[in-house]
Target: Pentapeptide repeat-containing protein
Amino acid sequence: MSPSRADLVADCSRCVGLCCVVPAFAPSADFALDKPAGVPCPHLGLHPAEHFGCTIHTELPERGFAGCTVYDCFGAGQRVAQAPSYAGHDWRDPDVRPAMFADFEVVERLHELQWYLLEAVERCPDPALVDEAEGLLEQVERAAASPRDVEVVRLQLRADPLLGEVSDAVREPAGVDLRGHDLAGQDLRGHDLVAATLRGAVLLGADLRGVDLTGTDLLGADLRGADLRGADASGALFWTRLQLRAARTDTTTRLPDLPA
Ligand code: SF4
Model:
């Protein structure tokens, strides 16, 4: 059975801190430490009473870990941690560690694909494309349920053109094509971005105040620090919670209805 988007929301209370262990981090404005892959962040609470929680959770930006406040595993952490094959174990057990880490990396990418495909099914006006998206969604779900030896790239290569076709159908008549453009720091106020594609665009710190993003394709767009105050982002296409958290919004921003 295919998941709902609510199933693709991280539930750290049911995880074992996988996102604080599995990835490597280089020191940057988003992460203050050099952390190799597979090594727990020193701020991860490993004492039984800490339940794999972040011990500096309430002061992440001040401590130089702003990246942790926007990160999103798409619910992969709890799915892997709660898998029957790992019952009673976590990554500290050397017998399960390699498989658990590998599963997390695969399931995270598959859940992200599901996130986009679910929106495609929900919003695409073309029934043939909806059928295709539903079929692929089921395949991705089967892969996520049994992630060993899954060729994620093969599924991504099928999803990419399909999501492009869905985007074209949703954005008809299409707006301006700015996919992949470097728009970092640019003042985009007053630009007509309705039904535009900003797929993969760099909008780091861009000024989008008051802009209407209805039907705008944001798949993969880097919106860190982008100013969306007063913008209408409620009808944009392929939003993620990560993008929303990374952008600057306030009560005047019209936001999409994403699961919390
Ligand atoms: S700082 Fe906290 S949230 Fe960030 S990786 Fe370390 S333990 Fe996890």
Notes: Residues 10 and 75 are 4 Å apart (CA to CA). The longest helix spans residues 97-123. The chain has a mean pLDDT of 96.
